[in-house]
Amino acid sequence: MGKRISSGCLAFLAASAVGAFDASAARAQDADEAALLQNFEKVDIWHFPVDTTVRYNNQDAVVTRELVFLPEPPKGELCYIRFDLVKGEGDFGYGFKPGTTPADRKNPVWGTNVLKRGDILNQRYSALKLNVVYFFVEGPKSPMAKEICAQKQSAPTPEAGAAYKGPWADLVAKVKAIHGGPTRK
Within 10 A of 40 (CB to CB), how many other CB atoms are there? Predict the structure, then answer.
């Protein structure tokens, strides 16, 4: 005969499953988001994916972008813009305009370029796939909290936007941001 499971045991199993799901969701949290949550009450994340490939017979792709946050603007103040390189091959650049001082990197205009390369006999391609992630914060927990944003954005790393090389477009394209962080595969 089949065994019966008591309702108390079922409740315990359901609570354990929910607790395990919550723990895995907490572990999946972005490292920068976790660091910012230690210093701010709320963190709001937006992102924009870039996926560009240029073959030998294509034109160079040089784009400067400014994100538009719709339907509602993000809550809080812009803390940090991070550039997550997913794939880069060939001749490409991304980040803030070269020569931009770290203090000016709060300007939300950034660019990418993917350039054709090779010749008629050696046709190669260039590709760039990255996520540009915006972190907005509210409610600093200490007077020093805002310095964390300045430190992250002024770092001389590609993640902080210091990887731009190559031509820059002066025409700025406005693109719609996606609320939430990029999905990791």
Answer: 23
